[in-house]
Each structure stands twice: as C-alpha cells, then as structure tokens.
Amino acid sequence: MNPLSLNNYKQGIELASGMFNDLAFGYATQWKALHPDRRIIGYMPIYIPREIFHAHQILPVGLFGAGDRIPVVRGDAFFQSYICHIPRTVIECALNGNYDHFDGYIFPAICDVIRNLSGIFRVNFKDKYIKYLDFPQNFSADIGGVFYRTELDRLSSDVGKLNGTTATVESLNHAITLYNTNRHLLRALDDFRMESPHIISAVDYYLIRRAGAVLTIEDYNQFLQSMTDFAKTIVKEPEDKIRVVVSGAFCEQPPLGLIKTIENAGCYIVDDDFQLGQIWLTKDIPDDTDDPMGALVDAYLNDSIHSSAVFEGDRPKGDQLAKQVRDRNADGVIFCAPSFCDPALLDRPLLERAMDKHHIRHSGFQYHENLGQFHVIKEQAGTFADMIKLWE
Amino acid sequence: MNSNYTLGIDVGSSFIKLALIDYQDQSSIKDILVEKIRKRNPTVVIDNAVSTILERNEIKYEDILYVASTGEGELVTRKRGHFYSMTTHARGVFHHHPDAKTVVDLGALYSRVITLESSARVKNYAMTGQCASGSGQFLENITRYLGVTISEVGPLSLKSTDPAKTSGICAVLAETDVINMVAQGIPTSDIIKGIHLSIARRIVMLLRKLKVESPVYLTGGMALDEGLTEAIRELGSERNMNLKVHSSTDNIATGAIGAALWGGFRHFKLLEKN
Fold first, then answer.
1. Does A383 contact B270 at a Cβ distance shorter than 8 Å?
2. Nearest to A61 by CA among A84, A83, A38
3. More confident site: A182 or B172
4. Which chain A residues in 232-291 lie under 8 Å from chain B, judged by CB atoms?
5. Contact A389 B79 (CB under 8 A)
6. What does DSSP assign to residue B25?
7. How close, in Å, is residue A243 to chain B by CA atoms?
8. Same domain, A45 and A162
9. What is the DSSP letter of A390?
10. Per-residue pLDDT tens digits for B14-26
11. How, if at all, do strands B28-36 and B64-71 pair?
12. Per-residue DSSP letters for A14-40?
C-alpha cells in the first residue's frame, strides 16, 4: 500500500499497522532498491536530529525493538536479567538479519544500557557504521552548545563519508523546513486528538506516529496530512472516560495491548511520551540561516521537551509534567515505565512528589515490551478511573 | 416517557447480565436479564440482550440516561461509560444490603474479596490467582464429569456426609481426582462437597488475608450455589472467623445493578459539573 494514495482512515491504519509489524523493514528495502547508492541508518530512541540525515539523502529508520513479536533466543545472552528488554530484541533482530540492509546505527545517549548496546554492535557488526551520539547535559551555549556542535559536525562528516555526500547550507535548511512541517502536522493531529480522543483510539494514534519512524519525511508528512483529514470526517460518540497523561515510556515501547488496556479501562490517553523523539523540539527551527547546524544546536539547547534522560536544570521536570497535565485538561497521570528503565524509574518518585504537590492524581505500574498479560494493569487503570469519576 | 432509566451491562466470561434501573424512583430495579453466552459471539449476545430488555420495557436506547458496562466492557459497542467490576459489585451489594462490610465476587474465571467503606467505596481487595481451581468455570467442568446440572450441585453438596478430599491447588489435578473418585464409586454428593470445600478454602484464605468484617455477601454466578455458601460458612467457623455469610439478593446480576447505579450517579454528577 502506498502512503501517498490512501482512500480512507482505515487504509491508513492498515498501512501503519503493517509497517509496525514488519520487522524486516520492507519499506526501507524498497527505498534502497530505488536509491541503491544511498544509505539507511537505524537509530534508537529517544532523539536524534534527523535533519542531518535528510540533508545527506540518508534514510533514518527508528529501531524500537520487536516487542512481543519475536522470541528472544540470542539476545538474552548479552544482557543480565536486571536489564530492560529493548536491547534484547534489538540485538536479536540484528543477529537474525532483520537489519542487514542497514548501513549503520546511531545510539543516542539515554542510559548505560544503550551505551553498552552500541559497544555490542561495534563488536558484532564491524562492517557497519556505529555511533554513540552524546548529548550535552549543560545547556549553556558556550559549554554544552560547543560540545554538541562538535558532536553534530562529526556525525555529519561521518555519514557524509559513508554516503559520499556533503550537507550544504541549502540541503540542511531544506531538511529543517520539512521537519518543521512535520512538527506542525504532528501538533495539528495532536491538538485534534486532545479535543476528540474518542475519534482516534490510542492504539491508532500510536501506529500513526510510529509510521514516522520508517517513512521518509516527505511521505510521512503527506501521510499525516491525509490521516488528520480523514479523522476529521469521522463521527463517533464520546464515552465518559477520564483523561490521563501517560509518562515514562519514552524508550522501550509498551505493547499495543497495554495501550489498549489503559483506554478500555476507562482512560483517554490525551498525552504521552511513547515516541518522544518526534516531538522533542517544541518550536520551529529557523530554516533560513547561514548556519543551519548552529540552528539545530540552539533548538536542542533551548527548545527541548523535558525528559528523564536530560538534566532538568532550572526547569523542574515535575513542574513541566504538571503543566502538561493542565494544558491537556487531564484528570491525572499514569506512570507507565518499562521494568529496569533507570531514567524513568529513578525519576518516578520525584515526579510523583511533584504531582502530589500540584494535587494531581496519579497511579503507576511497570511493563516490558513483550508483556502479554494485562489483567493487573487493567485492574489498576480501571480503579484509578473509577476513583476519579466517582469520588473526585 | 420516563427518562430516568440507567442500564448496566456486566460482561462475564460465561454470562451477560443486564440491569435496568429507574434512578429517580429510589433507584428501583425495573428489569434484570441474564443471558448465557454459549460459545456465541459475545458482542452479538450483548446487542441482542440490550434490544430485548429495551423492547420488553418499551423504551428506546435514547431514553436511557447512562448505559454503563462492567466486566469485559470493551465488548459493549455502544455505551456511555465503563466502571471496574470491583466498584460495581460493591455498589450492587450496597443497594440491597446497606449493612454489607465485605463482598465476595465468585466469578467464572476467578474470585475476589472486597471490603467496603460505609458509602459503598472499595476499601481493600484480594483475588485468587490465575489458577482455575477457584473458579466457576472449574465447577462447571466438574458437573460435566459427574453428569449433574449446575442447579443440582448445591442441594447435592448439602446432602454430603463424608466429603471427599481433592487437590485445592490445581484444577487439572482436581479434575483427575474427580475422575478417580467416580471410578472408585464415591457418592456424587461427597465429591461435590469436596470440590466446594476446595474452592471455599481459597476464598476463606482471602477473607483471612483481608481480616474482613461481617456481614459478608456473595455475588456472581457461584453465589447461587447454596452448597458453596455453606462450605464457606463451615470453613470460616472451623477457623474461628465467626463470619456471617449470605448470598446477595440478585447475586448474579450484582455487577450490572452496580454499573447502572453508578451510571446514574455519574450522569447527575456530570450535569452538576457542567
């Protein structure tokens, strides 16, 4: 199915669902067949500046593990039992040959596990380009900014050599324009869903956004525009559910069954951090400067969304989450983090205290990407919804 | 047309239960409908059951203030809201028995003990694990081996003089036990009583865990089984728990009644809010 020739909403969801389930990345394979001299780079969550790859005519593809869709046989040999699940399915897929048509991998700095995974890839895939992309935790331009600029220049130079291209001011500015459009489209769809969460189910919304990890930005922008237009024509009665913000699932992704369970238990998810990288930058990046790389650096330093993988500085994450809850007119927060996810779980007590301070109701649980039983989560989310509906 | 009706739909794994309530008329129960799923598509059974209850009460869907689901509510295609089954069972029991301190929901797949605050609010709960040996489905399977109907189970159990001992840990082992007992010629009433005591042991364990107070009301399909009720009483008394155990009125439809009542409450709360 072509993302550019959709006839209705259902077709779009089928397309997105097909791409979600396609662990062989058929779309990327087709793209490479059309562009045999171009490269595909896989990247892990949370955020990478994809504009750089577009400027080099490289296809960046998001690697979110394989969830419950493959058995982990070899992946477990690389990680201890107290390590989260996503690196197991990523290495399993790589060893199974699912990423054979990829030319390199980017591992953005999230936590020690992802850093170790980059090392494991370096040892096991010597013929591929492997980059552990470090991000500054100091947000002043003359310290963190200089460091980040060096990282991005090195990345651009590396992938340029790999692809035989140079990122020009024009190509970078053009990429920034496309990604600015993407951010607008995502925001428009998000605003629509915030107003009408009953029209697009949480699972559909997840799949629509997940397509952005695979499609070229040009195709994805058109896909988003079509899906927003289709969604606006759907007529459906809203249900009496509470509105919740889900927090903590920015790296290892929850299984679709879990997202569905939360919604079926009586909660409309009106905001989440499932694929935080797509909305990492909260404002447009100037696309007409002589220094587009500098614009990318400034955007990261000044307009990044809050995340457990980033030092909060003078903007406490708890206050930012509380603001998110108010902006979304949400009734509460569900802390939903993967087991053994250090960034999310170390932040949780801090965020819970902040929610208490702001008198925002919250509940929390943990999952792993291949979780198959949702009974306990249904119970917890259901009682949380009832408590707010009946007793608040 | 009276526009104060609310409808509760409790979707269980064996039965669909519906309760139609006149929320303004002292929340009186107007109608109850219980439909066995019998390997049919539950969504179709639900849709048909809703049509039936509306037709026989001569009301239209649009006349209902709030249609609330409970249990496996996602199977109800048209509704206004969903309440969790613990919340609805608590409310359903409280409607008939305002003195209730504890509710035991004896479902087809698992059982759950709920302790209540004075306003039908859930205080605490505990439930059986995923093993089937504490469930109604298990009891139903046993009746097939024994060649008796579900309605015969209670009276037969009460006639037992020497209850058989069965595995209280695993449904598979207990089923094997039952087959062996039949082969040994142990009377059916003693086998059933043994099974009842095995299920009751799990329930009493939960009651002890929560340190519950009486009166205790039983809901769900198995609450119709007076043999099981008696077995819970007996074991409670053996453990000096001094429990007053009763089967709740409208026991199988308690969840649906609770859902309809919370639906009405929620409807007027939303009206007030807006």
1. no
2. A38
3. A182
4. 237, 239-241, 264-266
5. no
6. S
7. 13
8. yes
9. I
10. 899 999 999 987 7
11. unpaired
12. HHHHHHHH-TT-HHHHHHHHH-TTS-E
Q: Are residues A8 and A83 in the same domain?
A: no
- Between the alpha carbon of residue B165 and those of residues A112, B149, B162, B177, B196, the distances in Å are 55, 22, 9, 9, 10
pTM, full prediction: 0.90
Task: Please state, in angstroms and rounded to a whole number, the distance separating the CA atoms of residues B196 and B163.
Answer: 9
Q: Is B75 helix (H, G, I), strand (E, B) or coil?
A: helix
Mean pLDDT of A363-390: 92
Mean pLDDT over residues A189-212, rounded? 97
Task: Tell me, yes or no, whether A121 and A60 share the same domain.
Answer: yes
For the cut 80, the answer to whether the pLDDT of residue A14 exceeds it is: yes
Is the pLDDT at A58 greater than 60? The verdict is yes
Over residues A208-223, the pLDDT tens digits come to 999 999 999 999 999 9
- Pairing type for strands B81-82 and B64-71 reads parallel
Kindly give the pairing relationship between strand A129-133 and strand A104-108.
parallel
Is A88 in the same domain as A139? yes
Using CB atoms and an 8 Å cut-off, which of residues 59-88 of chain B contact chain A?
66, 73-74, 78-87
**Domains of chain B, start order:** 5-91+253-273 (3.30.420.40), 98-248 (3.30.420.40)
Q: What is the CATH number of the domain that holds A300?
A: 3.40.50.11900
In a domain, A33, yes or no: no
| B18-22: long-range pairs with CB below 8 Å, 24+ | B18/B49, B18/B50, B18/B53, B18/B253, B18/B256, B19/B250, B19/B253, B19/B256, B19/B257, B19/B259, B19/B260, B20/B53, B20/B57, B20/B260, B21/B257, B21/B260, B21/B261, B21/B264
Please tell me if residue A348 touches chain B, with a CB cutoff of 8 Å.
no
Rounded to 5°, angle at Cα A299 from A296 and A302: 150
pLDDT at A144: 96
Tell me the mean pLDDT in the region A231-241.
Answer: 96
- Within this chain, do residues A199 and A154 fall inside the same structural domain, yes or no? no
Mean pLDDT, residues B182-189 taken together: 92
CA distance A373 to A162: 44
Contacts of residue A382 in chain B, CB cutoff 8 Å? 82-87
Q: How confident is the model at residue B108 (pLDDT cuts 50, 70, 90)?
A: confident
| Coil, strand or helix at A75 | helix
Query: Does B81 contact A386 at a Cβ distance shorter than 8 Å?
Result: no
Q: Which of A269, A267, A273 is nearest to A249 (CA)?
A: A273
Domain extent, residue A122, equals 38-167
**Dihedral over Cα of A199, A202, A203, A209: its sign:** positive
The number of domains in chain A is: 3
In a domain, A52, yes or no: yes
